[in-house]
Amino acid sequence: TLKLTRAGERRLGGLLDALVGFWGQNIGIVTGGGSGVMEVANTMARDRGILSGANFLDITDQPMTTDVDFCQVFQSTCRHSRQKWFEIASFPIFNVGGLGSLEELGITLCNMKLSIMEPVPVVLFDTEGNHGFWDGMHHQITTMVAMGRAPEWITDRLIITDDPQKVIAVYRKQLQLF
């Protein structure tokens, strides 16, 4: 499990502060409950007085955080079922992560394509601020669109940034708020 740098923690904290500033404290976050970025996000949420939850997979590849307000545990063979429980989030945010994040992003975009989930903005937050972590994903998706293998509207839904204020601006636009 890879921990965030101090700059990454500050950036993630800035994102959570911006979300609380926009939505108020009647919001919550739901992570996969692992250590690393997910653990930091859950701890930061609780420190800010917002609801913190985790959808665990019953596997042994990573330690699970216990610093959450609620959790659910899914068998490792039920990853797609687990992902459906993230749909309570109106606006999914993906932080710098690993293969699990890649799978979850794919499931989210596919669910939007199949009209299982509303096509909302999907934020790919460059928590470490390297301005490049999500470049490969962006290239892959735009290539799929260009080849007719993905709907054009998906590129309009992907927001790649390390700026919390850009995330808030996207939410204002989506909700048609000024």
Question: Could you characterize the architecture of this molecule?
Answer:
This protein is of the alpha/beta class. 44% of the residues lie in helices and 16% in strands. The chain has helices spanning 6-23, 37-47, 79-84, 99-113, 135-146, 153-157, 164-175; strands spanning 28-31, 51-58, 70-75, 93-94, 122-125, 158-161. The chain has a three-stranded parallel sheet with strand order 1-2-3. A three-stranded parallel sheet has the order 4-5-6, with helices on both faces. α2 links the parallel β1 (28-31) and β2. α1 (6-23) packs across α2 (37-47) and α1 (6-23) packs parallel to α7. The mean pLDDT is 83.
Number-wise, the strands total 6
**How much strand?**
15-25%
The total of helices stands at 7
Which outline best applies?
globular
Average pLDDT, to the nearest integer?
Answer: 83
Broad structural category: alpha/beta
Helix share, percent: 40-55%
Largest sheet: 3 strands, parallel
Task: Work out the radius of gyration.
Answer: 16 Å
Sketch the topology as an H/E string, one letter per element. HEHEEHEHEHHEH
Spatial sequence of strands, sheet with the most strands: 1-2-3
The end-to-end span amounts to 40 Å
* Low-confidence sequence ranges: none
Summarize the structure.
The protein is an alpha/beta fold and 178 residues long. The protein contains seven helices and six strands, in the order αβαββαβαβααβα.
